[in-house]
């Protein structure tokens, strides 16, 4: 049997947070944490992840909805250069699909989504000691303060997609 995988990039908040959210999902094969750049005027690197997923287990619309709900997708704050709210696509077909999905998702929000749909251009990986940060350090104050609430949202709204082995400590 051939496994059907695809990839998509997500940026919006700290890449430790974004990495942990997508690592917690069934059907996500790999999450690359680092910095992504697009085309001008978004060609500066910004914290992001590349998510490799089995689209027979979890769909692109589900991944996008999770992304929109687990970072400030409607807030243009002062750290947007470092934490660009974006979905990075890898080809024209994916770009069209994501643009179409974003129109549909906008209907679910009262405030305007600021998340940009951008073509992926470059990636720089994080240093090794920052990768898999949450699952190596779940008791650190940063993880408890910023990542746990995102994972709890996953359990509440997307429990059918959460890998129970990865978030077992949150159920207490």
Automatic annotation (TrEMBL):
Identification of the protein by name: peptide-methionine (S)-S-oxide reductase
Keywords (A to Z) from UniProt: Oxidoreductase
Organism: Gelidibacter gilvus
Catalytic activity: [thioredoxin]-disulfide + L-methionine + H2O = L-methionine (S)-S-oxide + [thioredoxin]-dithiol; L-methionyl-[protein] + [thioredoxin]-disulfide + H2O = L-methionyl-(S)-S-oxide-[protein] + [thioredoxin]-dithiol
Domain of life from the UniProt record: Bacteria
Residue ranges occupied by any Peptide methionine sulphoxide reductase MsrA domain in the UniProt entry: 8-143
Enzyme Commission number(s) from the entry: 1.8.4.11
InterPro entries attached to this UniProt entry: Met_Sox_Rdtase_MsrA_dom, Met_Sox_Rdtase_MsrA_sf
């Amino acid at each position: 049997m051939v496994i059907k995988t695809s990839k998509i990039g997500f940026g919006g908040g700290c890449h430790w947070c974004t990495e942990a959210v997508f690592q917690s999902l069934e059907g996500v094969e790999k999450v690359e944490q680092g910095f992504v750049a697009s085309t001008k005027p978004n060609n500066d690197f910004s914290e992001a992840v590349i998510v490799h997923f089995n689209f027979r287990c979890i769909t692109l619309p589900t991944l996008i909805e999770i992304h929109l709900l687990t970072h400030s997708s409607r807030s243009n704050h002062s750290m947007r250069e470092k934490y660009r709210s974006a979905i990075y696509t890898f080809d024209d077909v994916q770009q069209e699909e994501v643009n179409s999905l974003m129109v549909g998702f906008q209907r679910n929000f009262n405030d305007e989504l600021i998340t940009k749909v951008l073509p992926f251009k470059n990636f720089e990986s994080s240093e090794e000691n920052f990768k898999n940060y949450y699952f190596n350090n779940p008791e650190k104050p940063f993880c408890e303060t910023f990542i746990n609430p995102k994972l709890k949202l996953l359990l509440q709204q997307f429990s059918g997609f959460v890998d129970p082995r990865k978030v077992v400590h949150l159920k207490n």
